[in-house]
Amino acid sequence: MAATATTWPHGLDPQLAEPDLAHLEGLPADRLLAWAVERFGRRFAVVTSFQAEGMVVLDLARQADPGVRVLTLDTGRLPEETYQVMEAVRTGMGLQVEVVTPDPAEVAAMAARHGPNLFHKDPALRRLCCHVRKVAPLDRALAGVGAWATGLRRDGGGRSRAATPKAELDAAHGGMVKLNPLADWSREQVWAYVRTHRLPVHPLYEQGYTSIGCAPCSRPTRPGEDERAGRWWWEGGQERECGLHTRLLGGGPADPGDRFTDALDQLRADADARRWERANGH
Fold first, then answer.
1. 217 is an active site residue
2. Of 129, 214, 217, 242, which is the active-site residue?
3. Residue 45 parent element (H or E)
């Protein structure tokens, strides 16, 4: 009988080193997820935005543990269709979804200083918006987690994802284990699994979307475009990531990464001021 998140002994030491992960690279997706359930129990979580890859990971993970933890980020700017798929996961797949939201003080401070659609103004401000609505909430949600799984594929995101391993130590989250069970899957394999197992499908795929995030930052892709060409398309040909899987660092004074750091520092000061005002009745 497979171990479950509620029955596996939690006294197991979760600390691993890179050499301990080497044998995981050759495991198929289902066995990799079963290993995570057995190794970490309730300290393992699947993080998903309910795109096709995420649905496959959820289905494989629930076979190892019907009570597997599921986390999703509600940025406050998601399309309505994403909530429809979330509900289908709850009712049709029998999974409880833990919804993670941004810090209200940070969202308010960001909008007050830069406006609600700051992401169009500067790549640095777009990264700031992603940080407030996605990166920082995930950081908080993963506190106490020993391993998390994503739906990343090597052939689904340009150079930044081409070398995605199936298992890695996630330095951005304290060295916990990060699993990418579908790293070696193709898009065709993902969709074949979705259709064969009749999994819920995000309605926006039928409208030509191939990568779905926040509503104002996603559009349908055109024939011949990369899968992620519809994300933040106004930024041109540069590598476009939100920071969840590739931390965005700066180079020189004019670099968007450095402008992002400056904007983040200012945001934190603004948010702290708002919290102080609220706590003191202002």
1. no
2. 242
3. strand 44-47
